[in-house]
Automatic annotation (TrEMBL):
Organism: Streptomyces griseorubens
Active-site positions on this chain: 337 (proton donor/acceptor), 356 (nucleophile)
Cleavable signal peptide: 1-26
Start and end residues of each stretch annotated as Disordered: 51-76
Pathway info: Cell wall biogenesis; peptidoglycan biosynthesis
Keywords, alphabetical: Acyltransferase, Cell shape, Cell wall biogenesis/degradation, Peptidoglycan synthesis, Signal, Transferase
Listed Polar residues bias regions: 66-76
Record protein name field: L,D-TPase catalytic domain-containing protein
Amino acid sequence: MTDGKRRRRGLAAASALLGGVLVLSACSGGDDDAAGSDGKDTSQAQVDEAAAKKSSEAQIKITPKDGSNNASINNSATVTVDKGELTEVTMTTADGTAVEGQISADKKSWKPSGQLERATTYKLSASAKDSEGLVAHENASFTTVSPSNSFIGNFTPDDGTTVGVGMPVSINFDKAITNKSAVQKGIEVSSSSGQEVACHWFNANRMDCRPEQYWQEGSTVTLKLALDGVEGAEGVYGVQQKTVTFKIGRNQVSYVDAKTKQMKVTQNGKTVKTIPISAGAPENKTYEGQMVISEKFKETRMNGATVGFTDDDGKGEYDIKDVPHAMRLSTSGTFIHGNYWGAKSIFGSVNTSHGCVGLADAKGANDPSTPGAWFYNNSIVGDVVVVQNTGDKTIAPDNGLNGWNMSWEQWKAGSAV
């Protein structure tokens, strides 16, 4: 054997021996070139790196977070994406009912088309792709606030209506409010006239707002409710988020004088009509004070039993099923209305009612020539009726929409902010 052959055999043997060492080293976890510095198989690291490179860069965010309770019915269910574009979003109730929604023009966000329902569980599923077309997915489920854990404010007047100069904004909450300051801060009432508006809490469930003097004729009043998520009482949150506007009509104020038994109807301070009336009898005097028409009925039933006027048998002292042209002045039952059952001679000469203000009228409420019909047809909700010289006490400010019977100082003292 030549030296060259011996040399080649030696190298082969060395290679075999070295190969055996490498195998033993790999199995024993030794440090060598075939493993990374962290001991991880290089081939597996390459696979992991390749997989990572194939994942979408799109980052989807769903609000509220998965599993949330007491979620807003206004601002929940929003989907946004970063480093990508939304391709599909589906929203359903727990029973599978689809909820309509729309992806924004830039494909960066999605929201439902309408307000959500209270005490409802919703499921959201979203997909998005990044600039390379790689798709990402996200899912969430949440439950909206329940009626027992939320409050709403029932307000008057309604959006888009035209009302008289005495119409306050009156809000009645369906839950007692203990955190009045927070709730009041979430409510804004303003007028195009620039009049200062203050709010007054009558109790834990009612807050009215008005200016110092009657609203200016022709102005526009705006009510903004930003109560969504506001904690009105412990564990009880607001859900309303809306804006309401209404118009103030002509300035009409009517003055009932129980002594002269006449009513003067004024517009902008000028008398436009004088109508004979019959107010409350001496034993049933009509409240005095500034009263606001809160409801109008072409015909309505009036039963004395509902307001405490009963006979010995417990029946109402009167029960008239078709009182014409009735307009409510108080919650307790004071109306100004037409009267067809009384002699025409009483109007302008004697007070005979149980506390209401009566005007001559016709049965059926279809004769437009009667004083009752004229006043009804020329009055709107929010007009003021000032009752004077009855000898009775001034009506309570919270008995109807009659906060005008408080001084401005007293009114502002009832504010929580």
